[in-house]
Each structure stands twice: as C-alpha cells, then as structure tokens.
Amino acid sequence: MNLSIKPLFIIVIFSLLLTSCTNDKVELKKSTYDIKQCNKKIYTKEDLADYKRLISDGEMQGYNCVGLYYMRDKDYKKAEEYFTKGKEKGSIESYLQLGSLYSNFLNKKDKAIEYYKIAANNGKEKAAHNLGVIYDKKFQYKEALKWYEKSFEKGDIYSLLAIGTVYLKQEKLKKAIDTFIQVGELKESRGFYNLGILYRKNKKIKDLDKSKEYFEKCLNLGNADCAGGIGTVYEDLKDYEKAIEWYKKGFELKSKDSVSRLGFIYWEVLKDNQKAIYWFKKGYEKLDCISCLASVGNIYAVSLKDYDNAIKWYKKASNLGYVSSTYNIGYTYDKDLNDKENAIKWYKKAAKMGHDNAKYHLKKLGINYEQ
C-alpha cells in the first residue's frame, strides 16, 4: 500500500483551551489527514507499517490509525496505548476513539463519557451521537436528547432519527411522528420507513393505508427494504398474492429483508416448505443473506424432521459467523438426536461466541462453562 502522506500533513491548531470533566486543560488540534483512509474492515501488516510511518513523519493521525489497527485486531491494550499517545499530542480524534474503545470494548462507560464529551464539545458530532446512545441505554432520556440534538445541529440526520425513537420510548407519539416526517423530508428514507412500521403496528394509530403510503415514500427515496414493507401491509390484509409480488420486487432490488420475508410467507403462512427453501437459498446465492441459510436449516429441523440436512445448513451459516446456527446445531444434537457429546461441543462453540442460551444448556448438561 502506498499512501500519499506528505501533502496531508497540514495541522490546524485550535487555540482554544478546553476544560475537561476533571478540569484539566487540554490544548486540542485537528489534523487535515482524513481518518477514513485508515478505517478498514481488513488490515495488512503493510498498513501497520504505513501508519507507523505517518507517526515518524509527524502526522498525529498516525496514532489513531495504528490504534484502529490494533482495535480491529482485538489488542485493546495496544489500541489504548496509541490512542492515548494521540491524545497527549492534542488529537481531537483520539478522544473520540478512546471513548469508542472504553464504551464498546472495555466496558468503562464513565471513562467513555469523559472522552466523548471533550470530543463532542470540540466539533465531533459522532461523539455527541455516541453520548446520546449511552444515555439512551441508561434510560436517561433528557440527557440523551441533549446530545442527539447537539449531534443533529452538526448535520447528523441519524441523531434526528434517534430523537424520534426516544420520543417513542417516552410515549410522545405526536413528537415522534413529527420527527420521523422531518427525517424523511431531509431525504433520509429511515424516517418514512419508521412511520410505515408505526402506522402498521402501533395499536393507537394503526392505519394500513398510511403505512403503505409511507413505505411508498421510503421506496421512492431508494430504500429497497420498503418494498418488503409494502409486502407486510398486504400480508396483514391477507392478500398474499400481492404480498409475494412486493417481496419479489424487494428481492429484485437486492433487499435481504424482502427475500427473507418471501421465504417466511411460504413457510409459515402458505405451508409450502419447498418454495420456502427455494427462496431462502436464492436469498443466500444472490444477496449473501446468511440468515437465509439458517432458515433453510430451521425448515429441515422443525417442519421436515430431517436433522442431517438441518445440521448441514446450520453449519453453512455457522461457518460464516452466524451464532444462532452454531447454537441450533448443539440444540439439534441435544434435543433431537440425543447426542450429548456433539451437543456439548457445539454449545461450547456458541457460548464462546457469546450465546447465553448455549451457556444455559451447558449448565443443564452439567458443564460449567468459563470463557
């Protein structure tokens, strides 16, 4: 990998001195080097060498690039070390990344809040949004709204969407509806999508015509999942022919949700196992719908009692990281095949992936699981 480094080394210094939660004064700097260049799903050793070269050439974003590398590699101690070095250089980005590390991986919410606040108060809308998420999960909705609003003021429409969701949790239905309309009018389809679901499912305002109307608005903004949303309206009306028509449109538009729903309508409603299997397979083959593989396994296990084929399809999903299928393999060996040895083996794999029910069943089988 050959990074163009030199032209990006301009550093803009914020002359402000900021008081943090501990009243320490911190001089903050913002680099013009775009952190997105080193935020990847897969890294190589060459990437790490390039990021370290950034540091040696004086680019403080290099510390964050190296930190992201180690965070993706699950070496959280090294990630913390490099983000801290960036923080000591005054990097605003490092405060955001430390907040993310403490919140998402090290479960130190108080430290995450401290660093997020510094980043948020210095223009990082993502930090403000993440603060909103933390307080949202704590049910501290007033504080959550404050930070979501701060993020939205910086242009983050997803924070406005989150504001609407908080209003729903507070049972402020009109405010939620008005907010989702505002999101949709800002050309973010999820606003109309949420309204489609709301008018379809909320008993206080249930109106399938309005639900369909908002799903259509959502679809017009290019969200393929909303074709499936229209399908759910027709399914509620028991017009299965129309529902299937819309699920197929969603599939053609590459919506995994639509093809999954298509499989389920054949399996659960129309009791046509073979057509259900056909569409679930199609969903995986054409759209990489991993949950569709699991659904094929479910049909073989639940409806056809063909446990060998069920395990075969569960393994396909499990090999791609789908933890529910890993658990289902254990469950099939346990409850259907009475093969305790294989059940324990697969429950342990699922437990290692964080599946709580797998831990419960291991305990029932007399196995004390410790990760």
What class do helices, strands and sheet pairing give? mainly alpha
Radius of gyration: 25 Å
Helix content: 55-70%
Contiguous low-pLDDT stretches (5 residues minimum) are: 1-25
Coarse shape: globular
Helices and strands, in order, run as EEHHHHHHHHHHHHHHHHHHHH
- Average pLDDT metric: 92
Strand element count: 2
CATH top level label of the domain at 1-123: Mainly Alpha
Largest sheet: 2 strands, antiparallel
Strand percentage, roughly?
Answer: under 5%
Strand numbers in spatial order across the main sheet? 1-2
Q: Return the CATH architecture of the domain at 1-123.
A: Alpha Horseshoe
CATH topology of the domain at 1-123, anyone? Serine Threonine Protein Phosphatase 5, Tetratricopeptide repeat
Number of helices: 20
Give a brief description.
The protein has 371 residues and is mainly alpha-helical. The protein has helices at 45-56, 61-72, 76-88, 92-104, 109-120, 125-137, 141-153, 157-169, 173-185, 189-201, 208-220, 225-236, 240-252, 256-269, 273-287, 290-303, 307-318, 323-336, 340-352, 356-364, and strands at residues 11-19, 25-31.
